[in-house]
Specification:
The protein is mainly alpha-helical and 103 residues long. It has one domain. It has five helices and two strands. It has a two-stranded antiparallel ribbon with strand order 1-2. Helix 1 crosses helix 4 and helix 2 runs antiparallel to helix 3.
Length: 103
């Protein structure tokens, strides 16, 4: 994974954390608008892909900046949109796959 790709993964993930949607929603919405995909198909794709934690990118990024992954998790907790995602004691609540759980 190249440096630019890592930054894209990180940016897409932080967009998910802050706004509740990410790259999958962006791409799918364009496909639906242009008639190349149905809404139902789009929802299935978004459900499978949206919000996945880019663990490899986080590990590479935090190693590059000389931090531990826990440091990045603190950033996620600071920017997490608590109106969209569940929290307990100021920390994000995740499912078994590590995906943030919506309210």
């Amino acid at each position: 994974m190249k440096g630019r790709a890592i930054l894209h993964f990180m940016s897409d993930y932080l967009k998910w954390v802050k706004f509740g949607y990410g790259r999958a929603s962006d791409e799918v919405s364009l496909e639906i608008r242009h008639g190349r995909m149905t809404r139902d198909e789009g929802l299935r794709i978004v459900g499978r892909r949206e919000g996945r934690v880019p663990s490899a990118a986080i590990a590479r990024f935090t190693a590059y900046v000389g931090q531990k992954p826990e440091w990045f998790e603190e950033i996620v907790a600071r920017f997490l949109n608590a109106g969209i995602f569940k929290t307990e004691n100021g920390r994000p609540v995740r499912d078994a796959d590590g995906v943030l759980i919506r309210q």
